[in-house]
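Worked example 3. Consider a protein that binds manganese (II) ion.
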Amino acid sequence: MFNRIWELIKKHDSIVIYGHINPDGDCYGSQVGLKEVILSNFPNKKVYITGTGVRAFFDIVCEMDKVDDETIKNSLAIIVDGNDLARMEDSRIFTAKEFAKIDHHIDTGSFTEGPSIVDVEANSCCDIITGLVMEHNLKISKLGANALYLGILTDSARFQFVTNYPQTFERAKFLCEHGAEPNKINKVLSKTDEITLAAKGYVMSHYKKSKAGVISIVFDQKTLQSLSISANHASNLINLLGNIEGYPIWCSFAEYSDGRVRCEFRSNGPAVQPVAVSIGGGGHAQASGAQLPKLDLKQIDEIIHKLDQTIIDWRK
Ligand SMILES: [Mn+2]
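Given these inputs, the predicted complex is written out as structure tokens:
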């Protein structure tokens, strides 16, 4: 499948790389990393990354590109770190010329527009891209190595969730040898502020517990405003509620200012992905997300009930 994607890259002079809604370090790192890989091997091509990226890393990695509609239409679209066109943050992707995908989420079969590389065993999309660079002796810049390292680090929660340690460490080593700067990346990742500290305090004193073992928290707009944080910021605090003994699933629901609700599901046992899929979301077996059209506490209760049932079945 790599050859089919590489042929498409060779064929197109202009390429746009897309990341998912609510971009994270792996999505952003994959976009920057793949762009750098393509440019290092084909210096005359035009390669763009679209979406908001992860602002905290703009200083030490790079900023996103501004891409006009005409360029989008005349380019190859490459999806990284996401299932399909509908999951992409820049919805103009639907107008692109041709498509390819590199991803590590559970394949729902919803991408039918072109060749794809999907490795659900990989702990990050950046891990896959690094493997391709090594396997096919592709060139990579320092910037590309740094971006790919960022994605491996963040999606593995700093090397906690790794399926193949020797392989991932080989890849991380390769990136370090090509200029990745773990110290700098770690420093940015570890940075916090008093607003986040107060939000963490709120999370730790306001979570709810279900009968079977689901820990949950709901952030409505009023709460988010009183904490001075966004729905995305709140959602990123979900792991504070993880790994509490007797509670194998933890989840959060955060209301955006336009009324939609971001849902995050995590587990250290039963798969939460089927529940995410049942409400239109997706992701990994033990880390999934979804979006609800509005904050409906009754619906949230139903979702938690489904998660409870998941735990009951898993314990059998
Ligand atoms: Mn990822």
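Take a moment to read the result before moving on. The chain is about 40% helix and 15% strand. The domain at 195-315 is CATH 3.10.310.30 (Diaminopimelate Epimerase; Chain A, domain 1).
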